[in-house]
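Thread title: Can someone regenerate the structure for this chain?

I was given the following input by a collaborator and told the matching structure tokens would be attached. They weren't. Posting the sequence so someone can regenerate them.
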Amino acid sequence: MRALLGFACVIAIVQGAGGFIGRVWFDNEWGFLGRLVDLPTWGYLAVAGLAAVVLLASEAAHKREGG
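Best answer:
Regenerated them for you:
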């Protein structure tokens, strides 16, 4: 289950960062996230940031458990 969460977080980070980079420097969204929802530019950074926080918290919890 933790591996699936980590994989989903990495995908969300890539989609958020790609959408932000594409919109700021290339005037169009990159990735699949822009096809699903219409986010403002800061929204792509929020998606990537929240996914990074979840990924780091998951890894920290795993290390606290002794895994």
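The chain is about 80% helix and 0% strand.
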